[in-house]
Amino acid sequence: MRVADEDPREGDGSFDATARIVDAGGTDDDGTVEAALRPRRLSEFPGQPKVRDQLGLVLEAARRRGSPPDHVLLSGPPGLGKTTLAMIVAAELEQPIRVTSGPAIQHAGDLASVLSSLVEGEVLFLDEIHRMSRPAEEMLYLAMEDFRVDVIVGKGPGATAIPLELPPFTVVGATTRAGLLPAPLRDRFGFTGHLDFYEVADLERILQRSARLLSVPADADALAEIALRSRGTPRVANRLLRRVRDWAQVHGSGHVDLTAAQSALSLFDVDEVGLDRLDRAVLEAMCRRFGGGPVGLSTLAVAVGEETDTVETVAEPYLVRQGYIVRSPRGRLATPMAWQHLGLTPPPGAQPPLQLPEASDGGRFG
Ligand SMILES: Nc1ncnc2c1ncn2[C@@H]1O[C@H](COP(=O)(O)OP(=O)(O)OP(=O)(O)O)[C@@H](O)[C@H]1O
């Protein structure tokens, strides 16, 4: 697929948020396709009605005042549209966007050079903002509040801080772990939007649009099946659509129908309720190896051979949301639903404790 713009995370960091898809055929590199499938305006963004309405209001008010809006923090599990919304913020404000991420900013100097080159009104997108170094965080919240950074010149006792005024700009921070952000940084964001898993109907709309952009002929019941089995996540839905399209091209006429959807999803280990290999591995480990829990996160991660962070930010939020596991201060517990899904009988007395308030940033319980 050829697009007028590339995913900024793969380029030099600058990006024209108003650019459009120019050609929906051709190559099929996942990153490029993902970028091309992003909605470009708030009005094209299905799902997340609350965040969309709130953000729409904040942006419209700023536009009418003719000044940059408050800084925006977007949190939620991967693939739900945080980057997409950051691009939309810039497009709605008709401002350029600069893209960087927490892991890329390890020194305050890295941040100072980004900040000092911002132009007035620019949007600075900081992905994985919870992974920035502490000195950079401190510099950031001064910059967010006072539009100023102190550039340190020299070393040791002779070092001096030279204040550098910055033009007003808007930070859009994205995080899968809002709980890890220090309070002073969190407090600098005037608007926080928490993205939740999507309703199936919204995923269907997303898939209909994606099929159209990819020129994939598809039946409504096939798209509904993919939507149902996409873990409430647009990125997963779009990826599954591409695998179903592959199946239809190799085994059929290229037309995506229900048979193609069901066959491809089963080939790629997506079960009838949409759980994937990692989800099932987590449930299997909890029920078969740890008797349903409680089990600590790191023990669970070792048991399934994954990074703790992957289990915590990718698998767990959806399993908790769907009611397969619950978190407790003593660890994770499998619910009767998990046992049932695996075709196992829960041990007597395996009643889940009361569900604690959801912490999909995953930061609260070890
Ligand atoms: N509301 C939406 N409508 C249509 N497509 C969407 C929507 N949200 C996300 N997508 C699609 O899903 C893909 C992933 O979205 P995005 O990169 O914005 O997620 P993210 O939350 O930033 O993920 P990560 O935390 O991994 O960076 C996008 O490329 C886009 O194609």
Automatic annotation (TrEMBL):
Annotated segments matching region Disordered: 1-32, 340-366
Composition bias type Pro residues, residue spans: 345-355
Gene3D superfamilies found in the cross-reference section: 1.10.8.60, P-loop containing nucleotide triphosphate hydrolases, Winged helix-like DNA-binding domain superfamily/Winged helix DNA-binding domain
InterPro entries: AAA+_ATPase (IPR003593), AAA_lid_4 (IPR041445), DNA_helicase_Holl-junc_RuvB (IPR004605), P-loop_NTPase (IPR027417), RuvB-like_N (IPR008824), RuvB_wg_C (IPR008823), WH-like_DNA-bd_sf (IPR036388), WH_DNA-bd_sf (IPR036390)
Residues bound to ATP: 37-38, 79, 82-84, 145-147, 188, 198, 235
GO cellular component term of the entry, any: cytoplasm
Catalyzed reaction equations: ATP + H2O = ADP + phosphate + H(+)
Source species, domain of life: Bacteria
Localization in the cell: Cytoplasm
Region listing for Head domain (RuvB-H), in residue ranges: 272-366
UniProt KW keywords: ATP-binding, Cytoplasm, DNA damage, DNA recombination, DNA repair, DNA-binding, Helicase, Hydrolase, Nucleotide-binding
GO biological process, any: DNA repair
Assembly with partners or alone: Homohexamer. Forms an RuvA(8)-RuvB(12)-Holliday junction (HJ) complex. HJ DNA is sandwiched between 2 RuvA tetramers; dsDNA enters through RuvA and exits via RuvB. An RuvB hexamer assembles on each DNA strand where it exits the tetramer. Each RuvB hexamer is contacted by two RuvA subunits (via domain III) on 2 adjacent RuvB subunits; this complex drives branch migration. In the full resolvosome a probable DNA-RuvA(4)-RuvB(12)-RuvC(2) complex forms which resolves the HJ.
Family annotation (NCBIfam families): PRK00080.1, ruvB
Protein name: Holliday junction branch migration complex subunit RuvB
Organism: Janibacter limosus
Gene name, Swiss-Prot/TrEMBL: ruvB
